[in-house]
TrEMBL record:
PANTHER family: DUF4922 DOMAIN-CONTAINING PROTEIN, GALACTOSE-1-PHOSPHATE URIDYLYLTRANSFERASE. It comes from Lactococcus hircilactis. Residues 21-228 form the Galactose-1-phosphate uridyl transferase N-terminal domain. HAMAP family: GalP_UDP_trans (MF_00571). It comes from the Bacteria. NCBIfam families: galT_2 (TIGR01239), PRK05270.1-2 (NF003629), PRK05270.2-2 (NF003633). InterPro entries: GalP_uridyl_Trfase_II, GalP_uridyl_Trfase_II_CS, GalP_Utransf_C, GalP_Utransf_N. This is Galactose-1-phosphate uridylyltransferase. It is an enzyme of class 2 (transferase). Pathway: Carbohydrate metabolism; galactose metabolism. It catalyses: alpha-D-galactose 1-phosphate + UDP-alpha-D-glucose = alpha-D-glucose 1-phosphate + UDP-alpha-D-galactose. The lineage of its organism: Bacteria, Bacillati, Bacillota, Bacilli, Lactobacillales.
Amino acid sequence: MLTNQTIQDFLNLALENEVITLEDESYLRNQLLHFLGFNDWQETNGKSHEKNSLSLMDQLLFLAQKNGVYPPEDEEYYEAALMNFITPLPHQINQTFWEKYQESPEKATQYFYDLARQVNQVKTRDIAKNIAFEHETKYGKLEITINLSKPEKDPKKIAAAKSVTTTHYPRCQLCIENEGYYGRTNYPARTNHRMIRCELNGEKWNFQYSPYAYFNEHAILLNETHQPMAINRRAFANLLAFLDQFPHYMIGSNADLPIVGGSILTHDHYQAGRHEFPMAKAALKKEVQFSHFPKIKAGIVNWPMSVLRLVSTDKNELLRASTEILEKWQHYSDETLQIKAVSADNVQHHTITPIARMRQGQYELDLVFRDNNVSSEFPDGIFHPHPKLHHIKKENIGLIEVMGLAILPPRLKKELQEVEKYLLNEPNQIKDIHRAWADTLKREGNYTQANVEEKVRQALGDVFMEVLQDAGVFKDDERGAAGFERFIAFLNQ
């Protein structure tokens, strides 16, 4: 009876979500029974005993595995396919979304986000595993996370992946054809993923919520066409057009060059959400005047990276200014600061990480200057985390981290525990990559069981601040400030 009630409770969620009507209930029940490995049914009173979708998911997955329906290593795919039973079809979600949008953009996104969490497309329980804390600096509070949400790959999956035939469908993990895709050994489950169709400046776009969200209502805006990312006037126009539709969200783009760009440069996309990042809270270090653009207020942001903030109610003037600044930056060099726009083989090295938001009825556009040059001293990037910081962070500094939210690798959870033991002079297995750092920490203070975790976290925050400083093209010192001044003068020519 418990099995029947659990199935009925799950069907009731499908009814509540308007996936089906009462006329469809027997049909969907039979589909679900087969999916779970059952061929019998006893009627219940139809009322719900349990409404928590994740609790029901756990119970039904247990029953299915007990019936031998799927091997344990395939749980990711089976789980998504199970939750698809209570997920409305794309056209239904889009219709409801845009109906709610007529009431307010906030109601529309709240509906979609709540649904994404309910059907476990946004994996709230996995996200809750992340370690997160704030770190006070001279730039304000940085946000530090050790990302534990993405599950480690099952050894059986890794072994099976070697024998899987290569396929090019979907073309990448950001393509629209992922919507409803079951997944495969070397590709994530997407059966319960849904996207909202929208338009930006006459182009077709879609947005979905990120499964392993790094911040509140973390959305990914995807171009319907599989084409490379590009930072240009069109990109700036798209960010501002998105704000016109969803003024309660921020939106930004990774840079479009290797080393300083995101992990997927082959598909045009942006990231948005309902979160005020540390960089957005940062004040101006210095106001700047642009004689060509009198309607724009501008300034250098007090931030470890090199950021110019533009503010205006005039969207067209903001577009003209940001485009001109980008184009001039793409051709600007200051070799006294190792800033070089184009290499001898005519390769471009300069781009911008742009972030847009609405504040008090005005458009606010932050332009973060990026340079992806390398050198013999810094083969991974001159304006990239330097080698002494690689024991903590070696990966690219993308959009989210530019804004002050560190996404640190999961290995650090265990590795930092060993660092803490080392600082307490306890038996430990500290990795060699951390030893020099740990020795420096040991010389700086007395450690006890009560304070060691907090002190290591603060030291970790200091490393992230240095990571951002390394990525800044105009350093936060006297030489860097003078270099920034020269660049501003160049912009005003």
